[in-house]
Amino acid sequence: MESLCVCNTNSDSISCIELEQVSVKKTIILNSKDKEKIGPHGIVQYKNSILVANNYSNNLKVVELLKKNSVKEYFVGMHCNDLVEYEDKAYITCGESNSVVVIDLISMKVIEEIPCENEPHSIEINKEKKTLVVTNFNSDSITIIDLMDMNRVLNIRVGEYPTKAIFSPEKNEILVCESYIGSDKNGCVSMLSLESFKVEKKIEVNRIPVDLCCNNENFYVSNFGDGYIHEVNLKERIIKRTFSIGGMPRGMVLYKNFIFIGDNYNNKVVEMDLITEDKKAIPVGSEPTGMAMITLESK
């Protein structure tokens, strides 16, 4: 069974969208009303659980989906933004400690802290090459980390206020979303070679691009500042189509011939058919941010 799980940062909840019916099947409340905000922001699947990195409570929550949504929490570090999982370890970006914290998911203990530059934001993994890439929002850089030797850390200068970096389908490039937030400039996506570690192409997009996702042919950019999504062809390196979503589009996930876009302003997820361009709005919690496709193994 496949679902789309959405972090609702302001309402401290996870919306689980059933993909066949295209509606919210259940909402997981991560916080009781008498507690301070936790701010779920990043999400990833781990076995039959989801791992959630929380901005405000500085912890990792583990939600066991097949055990009546049992929720456990573990302190990580200040201002957790995003995370990935690999070989029973969680790698979590901590914006205030300027590091990636590594947690052993068996013992649930911190086993490593990898230094980055200022305000690490997003994190992505290339499992084939055992490599991580982290965007450092306040130092205009990305950090590349070798998982085989975590002392091998490379910092590379990019454009202003990078918010997301992903690996291309061929794993030979890194695509970097440069938001230029706070300036009069449009944002850009830089295409950086993993051989030369130099930017080979810079594509201007719209206002405040914040997220990227890709398939084998195209990558997609969400522009938080003006409500548009771009489709960019990977080979031609040009914008092929632009879609008006409205609101403040943020996180994105591709599924078959659909793209799901979180509208941070209107508290909804927009499902768009990439063939017909038909759209459907799915109401979720307040301030949808991180999203992940979840596949559960039935017991």
Could you explain the architecture of this structure?
The protein has 299 residues and is mainly beta. It has a domain at 38-157: Methylamine Dehydrogenase, Chain H (7 Propeller), CATH 2.130.10. It contains no helices and 28 strands. The protein has strands at 2-8, 13-18, 23-29, 40-46, 49-54, 59-64, 70-75, 80-86, 89-94, 99-104, 109-115, 120-126, 131-136, 141-146, 153-157, 162-167, 173-178, 188-193, 199-204, 209-214, 218-223, 228-233, 238-244, 249-255, 258-263, 268-273, 279-283, 288-295. The strands form seven sheets. It has a four-stranded antiparallel sheet with strand order 3-2-1-28, with no helix packed on it. InterPro entries: Haem_d1_sf (IPR011048), Host-pathogen_enzymatic-act (IPR051200), WD40/YVTN_repeat-like_dom_sf (IPR015943).
Key terms:
single chain, mainly beta, 299 residues, Methylamine Dehydrogenase, Chain H
